[in-house]
Here is the input.
Amino acid sequence: MINSKNFRHVTNVCVSLLLLRCMTTEAKRNRAARIRVGKGDKPVTYEQAHHPHHIGHRKGWLSQHTSNLKGEDGAAERTVEDVFIRRFMFGTFHGCLANEIVIKRRGNLLNVCAVMLQKLPPQKFYFLIGYTESLLSHFYKCPVKLEIQTLQDKIVYKYL
Amino acid sequence: MISPSVRSLKNMASLMVRKRELFSLARILSGVSYLGPASLSVCSGHRKCNITRFHLPLTPSTSFHTTVLTSAAQSAITVTEEPDTLFQKLVVLVKGHDRAVLDSYEFFATMTAKELGISLGKVFEPPKDIERLTLLKSIHIFKKHRVQYEMRTHYRCIELHHITGCTAQVYLEYIQRNLPEGVAMEVTKTAMEKVPDHILEPMWKEIPTDDKPSQ
Here is the structure.
C-alpha cells in the first residue's frame, strides 16, 4: 500500500471498534506494510520485517522533511515529490535497489540516499547517477544529490 | 575560530559571504570525511563526481568551494562607527519528530555557545504535541473499523542572553547550516534600543509655563 510508505513519518496506532456480540464478521486486521509470517523461505530485510507501528522505536523514517511538524505546511507537495522520486529511482535502477530509498531535505537541497546491488558495471552506474541528478534537479528546480552505496547482495534480516 | 566579538561589520554582505564560504568549506569537508569508509570504488568515485557536479544551479555555495582558501586570507577585520544591535534575549526553538536528534542538536548548540563565549540562559524541553487522525480503515463501508494515525512534534528551546548582532548572526548562521534534516527552527530575537531622548525627562519639568489644553 502506497499510503503507509508515504506516511513513514507518522506512527500508526490501530484501534478496532468491533462489537463483541457480532460473531459473523471477522476482525479487520491491518495489512499495511506488513509481510505475513509464512513457511520460512522468504528472505526479508530489516525494514520489511518491522511493522509500521515500530517507526520511531525500532525503525527510522524513510522520508525526512519538516512539513509534517506542527505549524509547518507543504506536506502534500513533499509527499507527491517523494512518490515520484521513489518510482523514478525504482525504474532507473531497475533490479539494483537493495533496500528502500531514503529521502532527506535540508533547506533547498534534496538528498536521495540508496543502497544498490552491484549488478551493473560502474560506468553505467555513473551515467545513471548523473542522469538522475540532473533530471531531478531540473525538474524540481533545486539541487538534488544522490548518495549511493553498493553491496554484493541484499542483507537478509530474517526468513518469514 | 576568530572570536566574533572582535569583528564589526563595515560591509555586511561581503563578510557574510566570506563566512558562508568558510562554513560551506567546513560542511563540505565534514560531509566528505563522513562518507569515508564507504568501501567501494563506485562510492569513492562518485564522491569525486559529486563534488564536480556541484555546478548545479541555485545554491550560493557551488561557486565558492574552489576559492575558499584565498578569500579566508583576504578577510579583514573592519571597524565601523555605527553601533551594533544588542539583543537582550535570543530564543531558538527547534522542532522535530525524533527526540534523539533533538538531544544531539541541543548538545551541539550549547557546545557552540560555550565555545563562542555566549551566555546561555535556559535550555529546556517544552511538552510535545501529538496530532491524531482517526480515519476509516477500508475504502468502502465498514464504518466501525477505523485506523488512528498520530504525528508527534517534539520541541527544544535554547535561550541566549545579552548577545550582540554580529555574534547572533554568526551563531545563527552556524547553527542553521548544521540543522539536521527533518528538524525545523524558529528564532525569536528581543532587541534592546536606547530610550529616545525626548522621553528621558518628564515634560512638566521642562516647560512649567505651558497652558493646559482646553478640556
In short: The longest helix of chain A spans residues 122-140. The CA atoms of residues 6 and 80 of chain A lie 9 Å apart. Strands of chain A lie at 11-16, 43-44, 63-64, 102-106, 109-117, 144-151, 158-159.
